[in-house]
Amino acid sequence: MAQSGRLDHFTGEPKVKPVCVLDYNKKMGAVDRADMITSFVDCARKKECMPDKDFRLRLVKEQIQEHPLPRRSTGG
């Protein structure tokens, strides 16, 4: 367990999470975020909704445009 960098608002103590969760959250990319967002979206009428594949592709493109990933140096 490691500190997540956030405080519990009721106790004032630092929140702790498993290291694997902190590592995943640090490295989570746009596709993971898009999958998370689309899992909460449910269309009331199917014929008004765009196909799931098109929606996910559009959502990922928007995420990448809004939050570009920092470039990493190859160290070479």
Protein model, in words:
With 76 residues, the protein is of the alpha+beta class. It has one domain (2-66). The protein contains 3 helices and 2 strands. A two-stranded antiparallel sheet has the order 1-2.
List its traits.
alpha+beta; two-stranded antiparallel sheet; single chain; 3 helices; 76 residues
Give a brief rundown of this model.
The chain has 76 residues and is α+β, with helices and mostly antiparallel strands.
Supply the number of helical segments: 3
Q: Please count the beta strands (DSSP E, at least 2 residues each).
A: 2
Backbone shape: flat
Q: Could you give the distance between the termini?
A: 34 Å
Q: What structural class do the secondary elements suggest? A: alpha+beta
Number of separate domains: 1
